[in-house]
Specification:
alpha/beta, 15 strands, Arylsulfatase, C-terminal domain, binds zinc ion, Alkaline Phosphatase, subunit A, 5 domains, 28 helices, about 675 residues
Length: about 675
């Protein structure tokens, strides 16, 4: 109490509780004012903020003059900015997998977004820090980073819930706005700011479609991508403000980076994920070191790769050698950040498997060393990125010897960094819900073909197919915006240019189905099945088209074909049940819904349907039992009591009917 008395003399009467609070606060302030020299602070916290799809050259601190990014610029002023930082893959999930394992995609095996999950065997930054006593939390903004992809490994808290889009609704709802992500991140911070913590915040706003909220929609009316970047800057600022308000800023390592850039039309690519040019491989990367004596407003040329982040962060946190990192392929650049050492020359690899997995065009691999970058493709490319940062002049023909050296180096490095398991994966199927979610985010994700399935074919160069890709991309976007006429036109043109494109036929089929052009839709899905026999997503769609068109026999056949491959698919049993109801085959309908119920016992609709079928069949006791199952799941289900009332009346059970009617009355008048 003595100290409180002194305090009271300084600031006036406090009362015992607030006195203690103020004292604690004063001590905290004193500690942070004295810095690390006086009293040993706890281990530094780590805050990683990934702003998806953010080009380095769209930020003020990277020299862009047409935008205001004051908060990111301020962070750079408080730390070290890496001028040349690179991602190994221009896609969200694989790039984050590289960030959080410190390994190349050829090693961690997450090559695109069509079914690869990060293996539980991989050590992640979160598992490493958790083993060192950190509390770990993450808030992500897009369904492509949902926990089921394995990217949540090591996080005690992982916020990733997104509503499922419906087939008819292609609006991009499998993502969250930055303000919501930040709000949730700060709630976590409130509960976990005591111990050393690792917080990862993922902001998705600069990802297409570019629809910045007010006032950025007006301020950047002609450059909506920039508007999303400016909006992300504001959200980053809210995180920084919260860290400062809680006295956590100084003792935190803050790493800001993106997973990949955005082409914005360069090389004919509109967004990202297709090519491996620097429009999408070059990323911003800023380190704000813990402590008040850290480097400020320093810029280093690089190169620093995403895989270098883990060893560097662990070194800054004082954990090098204290946590196990047996697999990490990157290098520690901590002393370069401090200006104590220059960076060694290093190769930087990148890949794009999307053209191959989704379209059966050639994959793209690249390697960079010094000023030169080589891209391995059917038409190979070599660029002098110092003289030609836009990668416009292909030097391959002029400097073939050098190009071949780079090619040999690339093949050697791929072999060196690969894990045997992670080579081009086998054909995988994609469940319909995932397909719809990805579609709602603008990704067209079909299960991939394996290398063996396309072996021996001359795969087209993606450069020569970018227009077909854009037609499919734009057609899908038009469909998402319910502009079905335009969608059909663009996708038909894609099909005309590339008649063997499974994706183009599939998307066109979807558009025809939505617009009730059932015959045309059927034709497209049949074409897909010709290109890939037994493909279950196409079979499902074909069945739906038959149902909608009243061709029940064909629909039944298609559903059964899907069930032959996926016998435990509740949704297909449900659809099949609906089909049997439509054609008055009540026993088969009952069997199908019972199967669906067994597979999906929490669905309240299924027992309600079963009860209706049993009433129809005259099995009132069975119907009542089914209603009871529904009411067990949802005790205030009005439709449940309505059906129960109907059954009691049919059975002549007046007392029960009256009691049920009273419950109904109460439920109906409930506010
Ligand atoms: Zn991304």
């Amino acid at each position: 109490m003595l100290r409180c008395t002194v305090l009271e003399r300084r600031v006036g009467t406090l009362g015992r509780r607030s006195c203690t609070k103020v004292l604690a606060f004063a001590l905290l302030m004193l500690e942070s004012a004295l810095g690390s020299g006086a009293q040993q602070p706890g281990p530094p916290n780590l805050v990683v903020i990934t702003i998806d799809t953010l080009r380095a050259d769209r930020l003020g601190c990277y020299g862009y003059r047409n935008i205001k990014t004051p908060r990111i610029d301020a962070l750079a002023s408080d730390g070290v900015l890496v001028e040349n930082a690179y991602t190994p893959v221009p896609l969200t999930l694989p790039a984050h997998a590289s960030l959080f394992t410190g390994t190349y995609p050829v090693f961690h095996g997450v090559r695109d977004f069509t079914g690869d999950t990060l293996s539980e065997e991989r050590a992640t930054l979160a598992t490493m820090l958790r083993s060192a006593g950190y509390s770990t939390g993450a808030v992500v903004a897009s369904a492509v980073l949902e926990a089921r992809w394995g990217i949540n490994q090591g996080f005690d808290f992982y916020s990733d819930s997104f509503p499922s889009p419906t087939t008819q609704n292609w609006q991009p709802i499998a993502e969250r706005r930055g303000d919501e992500v930040v709000r949730e991140s700060l709630l976590w911070l409130e509960r976990n700011s005591r111990a050393p913590f690792f917080l990862w915040v993922h902001l998705y706003d600069p990802h297409d479609p570019y629809t910045p909220p007010s006032p950025y929609d007006r301020q950047y009316a002609t450059r909506p991508y920039d508007g999303e970047v400016a909006y992300s800057d504001e959200n980053l600022g809210r995180i920084i403000d919260a860290l400062k308000a809680r006295g956590l800023y100084d003792n935190s390592l803050i790493i800001l980076l993106s997973d990949h850039g955005e082409s914005l039309g360069e090389h004919g690519e509109k967004t990202h994920g297709f090519f491996v040019y620097d429009s999408t491989l070059r990323i911003p990367m800023i380190f704000k070191l813990p402590g008040t004596a850290g480097p400020r407003a320093r810029r280093i040329a690089g190169p620093v790769r995403i895989i270098d982040v883990i060893p560097t962060a662990l070194s800054i946190l004082g954990l090098s050698g204290k946590v196990r990192t047996p697999e990490v392929q990157g290098r520690n650049v901590h002393s370069a950040l401090l200006g104590k050492a220059s960076l060694s020359e290093v190769t930087s690899q990148a890949e794009s498997m999307l053209p191959f997995y989704q379209f059966e065009w050639s994959p793209l691999l690249s390697i960079r060393k010094g000023r030169f970058k080589y891209i391995d493709a059917p038409v190979p490319e070599l660029y002098d990125t110092a003289a030609d940062p836009g990668e416009m002049r292909n030097l391959y023909a002029d400097q073939k010897a050098l190009a071949l050296q780079f090619k040999a180096m690339l093949l050697g490095e791929v072999a060196r960094f690969s894990s045997r398991k992670a080579d081009v994966g086998p054909a995988q199927s994609m469940d319909p819900e995932t397909f719809e979610k990805l579609l709602s985010l603008g990704y067209i994700a079909h299960g991939r073909r394996s290398a063996a399935q396309v072996r021996g074919r001359n795969l087209p160069d993606p450069k020569e197919r970018i227009q077909v890709y854009n037609l499919i991309f734009d057609g899908t976007l038009a469909a998402r915006n319910a502009d079905y006429g335009r969608a059909a036109k663009l996708l038909s043109e894609a099909v005309r240019r590339e008649p063997v494109s499974l994706v183009a036929h599939f998307q066109l089929g979807v558009v025809y189905r939505v617009t009730n052009a059932f015959d045309r839709a059927e034709q497209e899905f049949r074409k897909v099945l010709e290109l890939r026999p037994g493909y279950d997503l196409a079979l499902r769609r074909l069945a739906e088209v038959h149902m909608a068109g009243g061709r029940y026999q064909e629909a039944e056949r298609a559903y059964k074909e899907v069930l032959a491959q996926s016998p435990d698919d509740a949704a297909v049993h449900f659809s099949l049940g609906g089909l049997y109801v439509t054609v008055d085959r009540w026993d088969e309908a009952l069997a199908a819904f019972r199967k669906a119920q067994a597979l999906n016992p929490k669905d309240v609709l299924i027992p309600m349907i079963i009860s209706r079928i049993l009433i129809k069949k005259g099995d009132l006791a069975g119907a009542l039992a089914a209603v009871q199952q529904a009411l067990n799941l949802k005790p205030d289900l009005i439709a449940g009591y309505e059906t129960a009332l109907e059954i009691y009346q049919k059975q002549g059970r007046a007392a029960e009917a009256e009691k049920t009617a009273r419950i109904l009355e109460r439920l109906r008048t409930k506010p």
